[in-house]
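Task: sequence in, structure out. Protein: TonB-dependent receptor.
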Amino acid sequence: MLKHVCTLNKRILVYFFIAVSCLTAMPSAAKNIHTFVYIPAGSLSDSLREVANAYAVSFSSNPSLIDDKTTSTLIGDHTLAQALDYLLEDSELTYKIQNDGFVIFPKKVVNDNETLEEITVKGIRYSLARSRNLKHNNKTISEAISAQDITDIPNTNLAEALQYIPGVAITREAGEGRQVSIRGSYPDFSLVTLNGMPVLANNDSPMDSRVQKQRDRSFDFNILPAELFKQIHVIKAYSADKIAGGISGTMALKTINPLDNEGFKFVITPELGYNDYTGTGATRYSSLISNTWNNWGVLASVAYTNRESLEQGANTFRWRNIAIEGADLSALTQSQAQHLTQGDYIIPRGNRYSVWQATQQRFGANLSVEYKNETTHVDFDMLSGFLKGDRHEYHLYPRGDQSTPIIIGLTTIKDIQANKNNELVYARYENARVATESRAQKIKTAYQQGVLSLTQQVDQNWKINAILGNERSKYDIPFSNKIYTQGVSDVTIDYRKTPFYADIKYSENLKNPTMWQMHHGDVEQYNSNSEYTFAKLDFQYDVNSLITLQFGADWTLFENKMNNAQQNDIFFNEIPDTPQQLIDLPASYVSSQNAHKKQQWLKINTNEALKLYGIDPFNVQANNFLITTKAEHIKEYSRGAYTLLSTEQEKWEAHIGVRYQSESITSYTQAPYSPILYSLWLPTFNGSYFINDNWRFRAGLSKNYSKPLLNSLNFDGSNDTPSSTKYIFNSNLKPYLSYNSDISLEADFSSHSSFNISLFYKDLEDYIVTTQAPLFEGSPPTTSDSQLLWLSNAETAYQWGAEVSLNYLIHNSDWGINIQAAYNKGKVTYYDSNNGTALFKKNLPFLSKITASSMIFYDHPKFNFKLGAIFRDKYLVRAGSLLLDENETGFMPTTYWDASVNYYFSNYWKLKFSAFNLSNEQERQYSNSTLRAYNSTTSGRTFYLGLSYQY
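Result:
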């Protein structure tokens, strides 16, 4: 049935493309530029502010001219000029409409010395109108966030500004947003552009369960401050004139430009923050200065954050059937002892209490130089920034035989209890193993980008657009070092009351240094570098008043390199004349770990302690131990060319195009170095039908692709891979393909209230999975017991969903609500990565069936308030026999609450207050489809108080 649906989907795309192409010769009228407004009778000052909100502009006036005047009710569809004519009809005032707003002045000539005060309309209503206009002016189904949303929606970085968009979900790290998913898809399937060119910058997670040192194609949004950006456009339906490569959508980011505001502008916003877990203050600073001179403008903006973070929780090494040996089981029943020795129970391994602490500095700076006249627009943007910090993690856990608490020949198991899934949810051990782990790690992501763009109106019919850019990002872990200690204690592990957060008790004083022995250490270094070079040239030709033709080409070079060096399991008892007991370390190297709410134990100054054993903690190469290295190098060339034909009718508009894309991908760490080569034709159609002045229907049909994931280009087995399994590189690997169908119904009920509902379907082909590789000349030698595996485009998948959003502002009131929700369903067959066989069909990675957000707000010219909640449903991260311990892993549902308050003392001063994670939400990661506990953490509530000055 699914194959028939997929085939039908493709046929509809082709037929619709041909049919609408024939319609482009039909006559057309001018596009409707009216806006529906409802402004109740009141003061002229408030009415003009409402008009500015409705049309998303600012206005200037001498306040003494308008403060004592009133107006009648204005309702209906009007242009900006018509609305102003009505409001000023009985006054002695007139107006002048400029690029970004309008000026109010007496009908008599204004004296040059008369002061006009600019009233900058930047409230919530303005934000909604601005975002709505950005969305309406785009030719495809999309969502938009304006600069005011970005800075006023509670956020600590760019990712969190996106979570109130329908169908957008984020993942979090230490309480902050990090990765972004569009329509529930894998973050790697989202293309990110910044100032018109594709970009990539990676950070990582300090947690093993969230995958440290992860190289992927997803942009980590926690790297750059939100204050540097004026617009985020989430494009969900693809059009041929856009850069291809994101089958779930494109996030187009744009930094602030000087000509966005005429004249001199200066903004500075210092903020102080507090987190109830760290108990320390945080600081945030942002500033902007810009000026314009006739056609020229220069802008510089900076933003800096310095904060501490702390996540704490409980986690396991996953659960496994383990046959217990060498333990005294005499206190148990005969049946319990038999099940334990036979390995019938699924036992949680390495039950840890953990603390992740970090200091973090985030810095971003943007320089923009802009020139614009009636025919030419030149814009040079340079963006630079870094995210760096020191991370420490401390764990307390049983680390005995097979990562259980058992010390062979010493431990007694006094009592156990299993649940209906045969999982050991309670156990009490005497004379059991207890261990600690202390880790020190430094990280830094550096980001630089320069983009030069040109728009030239050659004549009445021809326009040229050009972009040339380069982006570099570098992620370094100069050191990541661990020290392990071990001791003996009675241990009780209990999951019965709190399945995702074990209650673990120890009989010994864990802060007594005499109970701990030094065991071993690990030393590691890592770095990953990415670079994009990009060029794009577009031509636009207005054939006549009815038809516009666009065509152009783009070229991209992407390169990524990674190097990793490790020295693991350096056992201290093999190094003579060194401390073997914790008590033998200098007292300054040992301190108490008091941050965890359940237990306290001792932590070690890892780097200083390693030096006592003759280990250089900052240079792996200087140590006389076995070094394990891994290096990867990928280079990609992309070339694209497109044409797009557009027509606008009185009641409808259509945009029909096709793109040709050619790719070459070479992995220099997978011999032979045969490049992956492919070329694609990507047809697109996007159309709108104007039902009336308030209702609009949109539709889109398109084909798009996403490149193979970076780990697919350096294919390797997992830690549990059988020794008989061999992996080879597939030089015929192709990209993921997506055939997309989108429809949307949009409505504007008033100047500020709007409603939107969207439906979409994606037919995903050439989905990459692990399969058995065919034997051919040059294949590695195999035996009857060995298997040859590779990654191939062997699967198909599907996804469909619905999205709804409502912005409603209560008439004659300053109150309003914003509600959005999305439903997603999509499945793919997962394969066993150890033998290449199909296992089962499950949800697509990262797909949450339901995501939703709601916000209630109060918006007054002097004061506004927001309270928002963001819900994300359960989702899996990966599935299949990746490890012996689980068939899938993912995250449980979460609901985050945020709030913000802004009070305007004047047009220049604003007091800001923001609160994040008010419920101190628990991030619960599960292991296996039976939802076993894997990792559960909380990060505390965060508050910021700031004062903003704008001139």
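Residues 2-21 form the longest helix (20 residues).
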